Amino acid sequence: MTRTLEGPSTLRNDVPASIVVFLVALPLCLGVALASGAPIVAGLVAGIIGGLVVAPLSGSPLMVSGPAAGLTTVVALAIQKLGGFEVFLVALALAGAMQLALGMLRVGFIASYFPSSVIKGMLAAIGIILILKQIPHALGYDADPEGDFAFRQPDEHTTFSALTDLADRIHVGAMLVSCAGLALLLIWDHPALKRLRLLPGPLVVVVVGVALNALFAAVAPSLVLGEGHLVQLPGGGTPSGLLAELTLPRWAALVQPTVWTTAATIALVASLETLLSLEATDKLDPWKRKSPPDRELLAQGAGNLLSGLAGGIPLTGVIVRTAANIEAGARTRLSAVLHSVLLLAAVLLAPTLMNRIPLAALAAVLLYVGWKLAHPLHLLRAWRVGRDQFVPFFVTIGAILVTDLLVGVVCGLITGTFFILREHAQAPGLTVVSVPGAVLTRYSLGQQATFLSRVRIAKTLESAPSNSRLEIDARGCRRIDPDVLALLHEFRHRAEERNIDYRLVAVPPLSDGHDGGH
Questions:
Q1: CA distance 34 to 43
Q2: Is residue 217 over pLDDT 80?
Q3: Which of 36, 148, 252, 262 is 20 to 30 A removed from 86 (C-alpha atoms)?
Q4: Helices (DSSP H) in 83-115: which residue ranges?
Q5: Which helix or strand (DSSP H or E) is residue 504 part of?
Q6: Is residue 69 within 8 Å of residue 244, measured between CB atoms?
């Protein structure tokens, strides 16, 4: 039976999924803002706008937008360079306007050129980073902000060195909470319990984490998780305090050239990260729906413009929240919208309750999401496809782990391009179509005779024996590069010297100003 994706029936999927995304997004919104050097409330502003503004405008039914971990370094440097967060907000608003322009100019087509091996490598790398970054939180070492995915951490550790420094920093209470959370998620995901699941597993994990910490306070005070190990909403736990921390842009900074260059940088990086996330989302979508990239750029532009005006930080499509959304069974964009409604309600109506959530419980949820993204089966499938796919996949993972998302993807693209160029260079430029042993040897030119096939064509022509008959048929060729066209005509002189009867069929002449296509 075909599963419907529209109508009231999706509520039973989208509502629980929105709760899961909310629980994942809450610490990430706070952590990304902290890692960016921005006011913590700015992360919440961006997260709320990501669901209430971007999701309804987006053409993607499943992608969740919010504060971008991949932009933390860019934001931190920009705030320092511009001399304050108020000036940075002007640059962010301008970046949103630039993204709107990019969407109107329909530049989203570049998303079609991201190789699937690179996208899959990006997903696996994000999963591995999630696991590596959440292990310290699961064990009670919370020095690195939740949501900081950078290789070099604010505490002067790297992603890897932080793991070697855990032995003396383990908090037994946090470890018990995270282990209980992981066990619950594994049990909750068992097919036998599918019909009994009335609540999403991550919500149960959070409730159990809060309950365990309360139990520790009653029976084992040494295990209690204090403020440093709990979610900490800004504003002193009151809505008025939260609103008092909002920052507004300083519009006088519009005359500063550095504001405009910063805006262009944010627009470019945020757009690329969004398009990458969009491609990844479509690959994760169980229904394999195709999302319009130009519409996504428009939606993200509107979100960043409003985030700059309202005191937020840059937002993009984010794969961690999106993966959690898909894993929780979401079907439409309603889940993304509702997760922001829950964020808004939590910070305005229940800040005290939110501040009781152990980071270790949320770490268990993120560890589980990371495991799903970086499952060893993904590595095995990439290996089975072949070296041309596995090497870009592996390079993308390695580069993202030790740099950042965009640098890693660029490394993967360069590696993938190398294999493509090598394949084209090794492909035969000319294909024999005559009967073996025939007096006349006929060659067919491929559909695309590019400069990449020039060397192979030259070798084929030079290998023709003297006193033979040779014909090049270009009737099936849609494009001939000028380099190849010149080669085909210039070989006439060599053919005459070697007494080769050389014929060209449907090959354009050089003297008519031909540009290489026909």
A1: 8
A2: yes
A3: 148
A4: 85-104
A5: strand 501-505
A6: no
- Strand ranges for 262-379 from DSSP E: 315-317
Q: Which amino acid is at 87?
A: V
Domains of the chain with bracketed CATH = 11-414 (no CATH), 430-505 (3.30.750.24)
Can you read off the two tokens belonging to residue 61? 């039914």
Task: Give the mean pLDDT of 338-363.
Answer: 93
Q: What is the pLDDT of residues 445-496, one digit of tens each?
A: 988 788 778 888 888 899 999 999 999 999 988 888 888 898 999 999 989 9
Q: Which residues contact 427 (CB under 8 A, 6 or more apart)?
A: 446, 453, 456
Say if residues 453 and 429 touch (Cβ distance below 8 Å). Answer: yes
CA-to-CA distance for 69 and 91, rounded, in angstroms?
18
pLDDT tens, residue by residue, 11-25: 989 999 999 999 999
Contacts of 252 (CB under 8 A, 6+ apart): none
Backbone dihedral angles phi then psi of residue 501, each to the nearest 5 degrees: -80, 100
pLDDT confidence bin for 90, thresholds 50/70/90? very high
Distance CA 110, CA 103 (A): 12
Dist CA 10 CA 316 (whole Å): 25
β-bridge partners, 469: 440, 501
Q: Give, rounded to a whole angstrom, the gap between the first and last alpha carbons of the chain.
A: 50
